[in-house]
Amino acid sequence: MKINRRTLGAFALLATTALAPLAAWAQAADWPSKPIRYVVPFSTGGVSDGVARLIALHLGERLGQPVVVDNKPGVSGILGTQAVARAQPDGYTFMGGTITTHAVNPFFSKNLGYDPVKDFVPVNLVGMVSNVLVVPAGSRFDSVQQITAELKAKPDSLTYGTAGAGTSQHLSGQLYQSLTGTQLRQIIYKGGSQAMVDLVGGQIDMVFETVAAARPMIDAKRVKVLGVTSKARLADLPGAPSLAEAGVTGFEMQSWQGVFAPAGTPQPIVDRLAREVATIVAMPDVQARLRNMGVEPDGRVSAPFIEFQRAEVAKWGKVIRDAGIQAE
């Protein structure tokens, strides 16, 4: 039988396609055989860094290989996220992703350098992070309703501090303005800690800060908590109403911490990594430490996490567009 080049090419393609799953399984069976890199696209000391180091410690013990946390901060998490999107998808590089890196950055940057959906595989939704609306202890405001009334009468008369575009402080403020039809003036800081210092000093009127970051000032009674951004009240702040309870109908804003792998990572490796992280997140001591960081453990994997991420992209895209914010 005479076989031409086209037929040989077709046979070669068929063989390659058939063998690809076997190659992935073989690679997964040997994984991990060397240290793994866990990229954090933010600086040390923050919530993302704390979550990564906690997960990495236990993951290394379970996998029998070191899991090394690699901080690559810069430009709202873009630099580190770009690095992971371009990494070899062999199971030896993954990252801690957040609402900023994997849901809202596309709406703030025209030249992002990565697609948060197409360039990554969601592995595990580690947990949710709520913010609190805080004002100085001596503020004349004692409720969210009073702030809304003030802004209705005098638009743009009050300020709120953020750590930059796309951060949870910024998104909380944007959602509040969108739902109340009010206008706040954003004051941008290099980090949330500096915003809190200026808040206590009376330089700004309010901050939507993470519970963990605001806790020292709350405990010292240097700020007042007017509301929480989660849908329901928080167990460790039972006296603080949700913003929805406080009159901002439909308000719900929680940032989140997740684990992502580069697109193309063999599915068996993704599945094992997802199971291992889910097991770690379910550990009582890990849950206690996560809550101390202000992170409510979750642990969703695979389809539920994928669905959640895509819903977040759609939700925050609408909020940002409605606010008239243009990507730069």
From TrEMBL:
Residues 1-28 form the signal peptide. Keywords: Receptor, Signal. InterPro entries: BUG, Bug_dom1. Belongs to the UPF0065 (bug) family. This is Tripartite-type tricarboxylate transporter receptor subunit TctC.
